[in-house]
Automatic annotation (TrEMBL):
Signal peptide: none
Gene for this chain: flgL
Protein's UniProt name: Flagellar hook-associated protein FlgL
Family to which this protein belongs: Belongs to the bacterial flagellin family.
Domain Flagellar hook-associated protein 1 D2-like: 201-278
NCBIfam families with a match to the protein in the record: flagell_flgL
Domain spans labelled Flagellin N-terminal: 5-141
Taxonomic source organism: Pseudoxanthomonas mexicana
SUPFAM superfamilies, per database record: Phase 1 flagellin
Compartments reported by the entry: Bacterial flagellum; Secreted
Alphabetical UniProt keywords: Bacterial flagellum, Cell projection, Cilium, Flagellum, Secreted
InterPro entries from the UniProt entry: Flagell_FlgL, Flagellin, Flagellin_N, FlgK_D2-like
Amino acid sequence: MNYRISTGMMYQQSITTMLAKQAKLAHTQQQLASGQRLVTAKDDPVAAGTAVGLDRAVAELERFGMNASAVQNRLGLQENALTQVGDAMARVNELVIQANNAAMGEDSRKAISTELKAIYAGLLDLANSTDGAGRYLFGGTSDGSAPFAIAGGSVIYSGDQTQRQVEVAPDMFVADTLPGSEVFLRLRTGDGRIDGQPAAGNAGTGLLMGFGVTDSTAWDGGTYTLSFGAGDTYQVTDAGGTVVTTGTYAKGESIAFAGVQMRIEGQPANGDSFTLGPAGSRDIFATVQGLITTLDTNPTTDAQRAAMQNDLQAAMRDVATAQSKMIDARASGGAQLSAIDDAAALREANNVTLQGTLSTLRDLDWAETIGRYQMENTALQAAQTVFMQMQSLSLFKLMG
């Protein structure tokens, strides 16, 4: 077999060798310039694929962080709004106590009523607070328009009952702001468990000053009516009309029955009655509006003045319950803000772990790469030297 060596072949082999070495050197230079071991996926397909998955996980943590920032802003604004609502209700309570003074004149009551109207408008504005991005805090998931409005003299709610759950870390959710129905509408009356009120037609001066459950095991959750007869006698009947207890009324003493008690002051008239039963619910706006209506009246008889005092006593109880509701709502928001802080710590820990793994996969081993660069550069120079020497060779020089 004959082999033929030509000048062209020798040139081509030398050029191919130099180009290969230049390509390796250029790749190493790219690694040194970028500080990355993986310049292209072919450098290490398995590591490159793993790194892409980790990049997605890091990007997901960033999105969780943005979610947390948004809901933290909303919860912070909710806290501010509820603080102002609590302050407003504290002022309402002060005004009710002032108005409940028997020496209060009509002009003074009208002045209190005027201030209550301003507080009413302020509460409505707070209930329609926004998050600065055009979304309403207390609208639930229907937060694109104002959730509260006045219609027919009363406040209506157009939001929904849903409270968003926002993911702020992997498999970690926090609740968004409370729906307005939970904050402003569903407020228990009385002491939050039971409530009492006088009959509308009472003719005496009896005042319902207090009530409460004394024995939870004895109270069946029913409604009872305390009725007064002649000679300060009374009887208590249940919802079916069955007499539960009877007795003689003594001013200021509590009347106990069925695990509850009522305290009446003043002088009830024959035929007057008071009802005690499970607490209902009333919105905060109706409570304030009821106060305004009460104070805008001008009682002229003892019975009318007693009715006003009973209304003011009931309002004080309802306001106190509303204040407790605001405290509970603020506590709920505070718990979510604390959870956001915990989520931030979790995201940071996960991010550190992911970045460490990415560094292992992608970052350059500078000592190894610099050594390889020097070796590849020397090899390229050697190939170039061989090529230069080859250019001076000719087979014709060997013929003579």
